[in-house]
Write a structure and sequence with these properties.
The complex is a heterodimer. Chain A is an alpha+beta fold. Chain A has helices spanning about 30-35, 40-50, 50-65, 70, 175-210, 210-225, 230-240, 245-275, 280-285, 290-330, 340-345, 350-355, 365-385; strands at about 95, 100-115, 120-130, 130-140, 145-155. The longest helix of chain A has about 40 residues, at about 290-330. Chain A is flat, with a radius of gyration of 31 Å. The model of chain A has no long low-confidence stretch (mean pLDDT about 80). Chain B has a two-stranded antiparallel ribbon. In chain B, helix 1 (about 1-30) packs antiparallel against helix 16 and helix 14 (about 255-275) packs antiparallel against helix 16 (about 290-320). By secondary structure, chain B is an all-alpha fold. In chain B, a hairpin with a 4-residue loop joins strand 1 and strand 2. Chain B is about 75% helix and about 0% strand. Chain B has helices at about 1-30, 35-45, 50-60, 65-80, 95, 100-130, 135-145, 150-165, 185-220, 225-230, 235-240, 245, 250-255, 255-275, 280-290, 290-320, 320-325, and strands at about 85, 90. The chains are: A alpha+beta, B mainly alpha. At the A-B interface, helix 6, helix 7, helix 10, helix 12 and helix 13 of A face helix 1, helix 7, helix 8, helix 14 and helix 15 of B.
Chain lengths: ~400, ~325
């Protein structure tokens, strides 16, 4: 046994530097993937959801448009063309008599049908009215401050441009829909901010402390949820004093929408907190002497913020629809504030709509926005948990 | 089980009380009261108002008493079947309301049945044919249904019916039956008109239900016991019906709690557009004219309908699912 020892190879030690992690070495690409922050991972996952991205872009375009509504709209919000009441939409043509003219519309001949007193407008093929672009039209104050008069498109000199027709006061529908976006789209954002704050604070209190606070908040949520949303909204907005200025009414309506909507978010926050506060990292934080506020906001909140944002996105359309419904019924916003719901209020009478169907057109942007928010929110929700 | 029912019933009482208090606060919110509006209206028409008469009316309706006393009177009145007085119609609320409450219940109930009947086969089909073209197109349709606000749908339907068919789809019965006593013919007429509001109100709920049923069934189909059964060679239909389908049926019952407020909400506004003789249009009028007891009764009724509906769904769920039953109602 002992003589076998000299047969052994000499103990070999390599002098070359050794990296113990060489096997697990990451390429730059892998590293950027494994080291990526949660938000970055979410972004990558969201990008893969093509429909969600498209809807996000649509939403972005709509929201950007409210910055420059005055420029995009051919007319001002309250510009009245008294000669063109209930004028139908004008079609855009490119060719006149086989010749290329560029985008233009035919002027209207007005005629009052003496049998049924209907206003009839017929396009007059002799009046070619080329649309002007980046032109000077109605003067406006951009966001009520900067006086300008430049528009993306305006009617020909002395002509008209009603791409979506006019309403009962001879106001251009397209311009009004563009301006209406400003109110309709922001109602949801302000409302969701209110309900977000309420949801996080109350849900957080209930979930973190438990005990009687939890019981009280749970009961309040249950009571509010057993009200059908819309009748409650109707009752509350009917209670807004008539003497308030339109702006106050607007704030009041958003407040009402937010005050009732928070329950769903609060429930989500509470459920997440209940499960998360049992996790080790939370216990560790408490043992190290972190105060409740720090534990909630520094340690717990980031773990479910993404979910919250996703579910908030999904409840914005409910608010937009709520405002539309209220204004449609005449309980919500009132002119001169113009939202899509206020515009639809004119379409309440089916007899009017049957003759002037273009009054229903504000339905279209409402549906587009609600669909876009739903798809986008769905994509966000899928992306909210990137570690799956 | 009895324990559970008793527990649920006991919980309902404070909830209803809280609801009634909120309702009363809301109908008291507008500044002034109906009489003030009434007096202002008369004065604007140049009519003389007898202050003594107003003072008498004010005392009669208890407007001069403190808030809590008014509330207590209202709640105790309701318990005895006295829902207060409608100023607009100068009649007791229960006389004004008439059939409206029952028609609202009918419409809501029919809508929920419709939701079940439609969403069940579609949900099962979508789940068993996941990612097929049928699934995709149904999902897309569902999304549209979810996104289209139902009052706009009602408006579009009215327009289409009016312009292309020359008829009105509004109302809930033929004209000769309005205010007529209930007969078989009137009942049939109501059934004939019922389907349009039911479809309009039911679309978004149906779309949601399909999505939930599909998700539930998909979860269930991936479980081990299904794999085992498949490995044993169980016929696929039997495999589906035996356990996974039963397991995924729970949301049908448990979702009434979220479906019912949605349906009642939808019914309120759709009935205004379609001019149905349900609570919606009258609630709107009552809110506009500050007819507080009428509006309050409607709000109270709609909220109680939800609470009772949720109670029924919880009890049904307890019957179906022993896990809930044996916990004795502790949550």
């Amino acid at each position: 046994m002992t003589d076998a020892s000299h047969d052994r190879l000499k103990h070999f030690v390599s002098d070359a530097p050794f990296d113990p992690y060489s096997v697990e070495a990451l390429t730059a690409e892998q590293e950027s993937y494994y080291m990526a922050s949660q938000w970055r991972l979410m972004w990558w996952k969201l990008k893969k959801h093509r429909l969600a991205v498209i809807c996000g872009v649509i939403l972005l375009i709509f929201y950007l448009s409210i910055l420059i509504s005055e420029f995009l709209a051919p007319y001002n919000l309250h510009t009245r063309q008294t000669g063109f009441i209930y004028a139908p939409p004008q079609q855009v043509h490119l060719f006149h008599d086989g010749e290329f003219v560029g985008p233009f519309v035919y002027g209207f001949d007005y005629h009052l049908n003496m049998d049924n007193l209907r206003r009839e407008y017929t396009p007059n093929p002799d009046q070619v009215q080329p649309i002007r672009f980046f032109c000077r039209g109605d003067e406006y104050k951009w966001w009520g401050a900067v006086p300008l008069d430049i528009h993306l498109a305006c009617p020909a000199e002395g002509g008209t441009l009603f791409l979506l027709g006019t309403d009962r006061l001879g106001r251009d529908m397209l311009s009004r829909i563009i301006f209406g976006a400003r109110v309709s789209l922001t109602v949801g954002l302000i409302g969701i901010t209110i309900s977000f704050i309420l949801g996080i604070v109350l849900g957080g209190l209930a979930g973190y402390y438990g005990g009687w606070i939890d019981i009280v908040i749970q009961r309040v949520i249950e009571t509010i949820r057993s009200f059908p949303e819309l009748p409650l909204w109707m009752a509350l907005s009917a209670a807004l004093p008539v003497t308030w200025s339109p702006l106050l009414i607007y704030l009041g309506i958003t407040l009402i929408l937010g005050l009732i909507d928070w329950t769903g978010l609060a429930r989500g926050v509470r459920a997440k907190l209940l499960s998360l506060r049992e996790e080790d990292f939370c216990t560790a934080a408490v043992l190290m002497g972190a105060r409740p506020r720090r534990v909630i906001f520094r340690h717990l909140m980031p773990s479910f913020m993404s979910h919250l944002i996703a579910s908030a996105t999904l409840s914005i359309p409910a608010m937009i629809l709520g405002e539309t419904a209220l204004s449609f019924l005449g309980l919500g916003l009132r002119p001169p504030i113009t939202s899509w719901g206020v515009l639809l209020n004119e379409a309440q009478n089916i007899n009017v709509v049957a003759i002037y169907p273009w009054l229903m057109l504000p339905v279209v942007p409402v549906i587009i926005i609600v669909l876009a928010f739903n798809f986008f929110g769905d994509g966000l929700r899928d992306a909210a948990d990137p570690y799956k | 089980m009895l324990n559970y029912i008793a527990h649920r019933l006991l919980i309902m009482i404070p909830t209803l009380l809280a609801i009634s208090f909120i309702v009363f606060v809301i109908i008291q919110l507008p500044p002034g009261d109906y009489l003030e509006t009434y007096v202002a209206e008369l004065e604007s028409q140049g009519e003389n108002v007898d202050p003594q008469k107003i003072a008498f009316l004010r005392e009669q309706y208890g407007f001069d008493r403190p808030f809590l006393e008014q509330y207590a009177t209202w709640v105790f009145g309701m318990l005895q079947g006295d829902f207060g007085y409608s100023f607009e119609y100068s009649l007791p609320v229960s006389d004004v309301v008439g059939d409206r409450l029952w028609l609202t219940v009918l419409v809501s109930f029919a809508t929920i049945i419709f939701t079940w009947i439609i969403s069940f086969p579609i949900g099962v089909y979508s789940a068993t044919h996941q990612y097929g073209w049928g699934d995709y197109s149904l999902t897309f349709l569902g999304f549209i249904g979810l996104a289209t606000p139902n009052f706009l749908l009602a408006l579009v339907l009215l327009y289409v019916a009016n312009v292309y068919f020359g008829t009105s789809v509004g109302g809930l019965m033929d004209e000769q039956f309005i205010d007529a006593p209930w007969t078989w013919a009137k009942f049939v007429s109501v059934l004939e008109h019922l389907w349009i509001p039911v479809i309009v109100i039911g679309t978004s709920g149906t779309a949601g239900m399909i999505r939930r049923l599909r998700a539930n069934l998909l979860d269930e189909l991936q479980k081990q016991y299904v794999v085992t059964a498949r490995a044993k060679g169980l016929p696929s239909f039997r495999l589906l019906v035996k356990y996974p389908l039963r397991m995924s049926l729970n949301p049908f019952i448990s979702d009434i709690g979220s479906l019912l407020p949605q349906v009642i909400s939808g019914a309120a506004i759709v009935s205004v557009v379609l001019n149905l003789p349900t609570t919606g249009p009258m609630l709107l009028d009552a809110l506009r004219s500050q007819d507080m007891y009428l509006a309050g009764s409607f709000l109270m009724f709609l909220a109680s309908l939800t609470v009772v509906g949720v109670l029924v769904s919880d009890l049904l769920l307890a019957v179906l699912d022993p896990r809930i039953r044996f916990q004795g109602g502790s949550r």
